[in-house]
Design brief:
Length: 527
């Protein structure tokens, strides 16, 4: 029966079918790269599951955080040690992302990427026509495709900046435009950027975005004047109208789970700290537009101290917003950095409840962007330095944050972090958050029987048929959600491809002994 079906559908014998799967059907990029890690199926509430939790959280900050990221429980990557505390990222360039050694290093160590220059205004603005701003993501394409394919989140950087923004954005015929026209251009830039991200990279998670960057003078004490900012030349010095508008537009057009940040350097200096707090309050007064403060954290070995850095964190925490450390690096110009790095991470880990992501300014010493030869990172030539081990050792000393929920808890799966359930009638701020998980355990928890694509409680050639049909004609043949989870047996976590059908056939022929045949490169299979 099955043999006849195979011959009718594919024109192949069973033994020849395996070879045929090396020839790809016409499958969209969506089908090839889809990675759905959120379980909304029948295993909800099973305490044996390790997956996501959806909850109404008591703290205001929880609603401002995107914690939908993954790491490998017990893994040896930097992201795996930091996973219980926060997402871990690095800034990369289009040149670096094409190097195999960099790709493997990033996949192992980070679950967030920031484009170094490739998403700044001068890289994405392709032209201006009246009120419309044309957007091109070609400069960032290699980085964004890498992140999409490997399930790595992206932190967007940036929309509003005094630097690296083409002057023609602000002008018509070399004359500065009115505020009204500039508002329309600002909205168009933000709207079209998110539109291009959705259309070109449908499976990419843009978890957060620096909406406005470096609004204030160097050490703080007010917004940049006309002499240093085209924004001030259009709107007038000290006018924050464009800042509020940028956040309004970003909130309107960004994905629902994309969190929005106000970012600056020297943020630990008291005047700059005050500037950021005052601006955040202005934005908050206008509506629910801002989610957090981005602390760039460009430090030198003797300044700021960890305690000074922590003081700034505490002041930002008082806003009820999230915090991200967005460009962490330390200069050795005043001495070694091996003590301050662990101290800064210790502070961040202790405040992890209010810090959703920590990002290094680059991946390794050799790729630092600043011209200062003294800038140091925890890695050199993609190898950890001695003080890196002092950083990861902190995970044995500092407890990860506890998620507290109310009696309105709706659990789809359990969480990898400690969860305390409080039965209380108190009215709280309702927020939907997700907690980081172990990918392998999550994938296993979603599967009823590995390889059972048609959900008939058996593994046979009919499962390979339905997989191939769904790829060849997805409009007519579509796997159920459970079937898709069961069928993802080759590089599990990447999504359905012809390789999954081939793996099932190899299993049926005894070439492999169990399914899945393999997990994606970010998962270690234990068989």
């Amino acid at each position: 029966m099955i043999g006849n079906t195979i011959k009718k559908v594919l024109g192949l014998t069973v033994s020849a079918a395996i070879l045929s799967f090396c020839v790809p059907f016409s499958v969209s990029a969506d089908d090839k790269n889809d990675k759905s890690y959120i379980n909304s199926g029948s295993n909800a509430g099973d305490e044996s599951d390790t997956a996501y939790e959806t909850a109404d959280c008591i703290g205001r900050v929880a609603s401002r955080q995107n914690l939908n990221y993954t790491y490998e429980k017990g893994g040896d990557g930097f992201k795996d040690y930091m996973g219980p505390y926060f997402r871990l990222g690095a800034a990369v360039t289009g040149y670096e992302i094409n190097k195999t050694v960099a790709q493997e290093f990033i996949k192992k160590n980070y679950n967030s990427i920031t484009c170094m220059n490739e998403m700044k205004p001068d890289s994405i603005i392709a032209g201006v026509n009246g009120d419309e701003v044309d957007i091109s993501l070609n400069s960032a394409k290699a980085i964004l495709k890498f992140a999409e394919h490997n399930g790595i989140g992206v932190h967007g950087h940036t929309f509003v900046w005094y630097s690296q923004t083409p002057s023609y954005l602000f002008q018509d015929n070399h004359e500065y435009v009115s505020k009204e026209r500039m508002n329309k251009r600002l909205e168009s830039m933000i709207k079209n950027t998110f539109s291009e991200l959705r259309s070109q990279f449908p499976n990419l998670q843009v978890h957060s975005y620096d909406v406005c960057n470096e609004l204030f003078i160097n050490d703080g004490g007010g917004m940049r004047p006309e002499s240093g900012s085209n924004w001030a030349k259009v709107y007038g010095e000290g006018n924050s109208e464009f800042v509020v508008n940028a956040f309004k537009y970003a909130r309107e057009y960004a994905p629902e789970d994309c969190k929005l940040y106000l970012s600056d350097y020297n943020e630990y200096m008291s005047k700059k700290t005050d500037d950021l707090i005052d601006m955040a309050k202005k934005i908050m007064k206008e509506g629910d537009y801002i989610d957090g403060i981005g602390m760039q954290a460009h430090l030198i070995s003797r300044y700021s101290s960890a305690s000074e850095f922590e003081t700034a964190i505490k002041q930002f925490e008082a806003l009820g917003l999230d915090i991200q450390i967005t460009e962490l690096d330390i200069s050795s110009s005043t001495g070694p950095v091996d003590e301050l790095y662990p101290q800064i991470f210790e502070v961040a880990m202790k405040h992890a409840k209010n810090i959703s992501c920590v990002t290094l300014s680059r991946t390794t010493d050799e790729s630092v962007w600043r011209t200062d030869d003294y800038i140091r990172l925890p890695f050199s030539n993609y190898q950890p330095k001695n003080f890196y081990y002092d950083i990861i050792a902190l995970a044995d000393k500092i407890d990860p944050p506890t998620v507290t929920t109310t009696n309105t808890l709706t659990t789809t799966t359990t969480t990898t972090t400690t969860t305390t359930t409080t039965n209380t009638a108190t009215t709280t701020v309702s927020a939907t958050t997700t907690a980081p998980v172990d990918i392998k355990e999550l994938l296993d928890s979603k599967v009823s029987i590995w390889g059972d694509a048609n959900c008939d409680d058996n593994i046979d050639m009919s499962d390979t048929v339905i997989i191939m049909q769904s790829l060849a004609n997805p409009n007519k043949y579509k796997l159920t959600e459970q079937g898709a989870a069961n069928a993802d047996v080759y590089e599990a976590g990447v999504g359905i491809t012809t390789n999954d059908a081939a793996s099932i056939q190899k299993y049926l022929l005894g070439i492999i002994k169990s399914l899945p045949e393999s997990y994606s490169s970010n998962v270690t299979a234990s068989k």
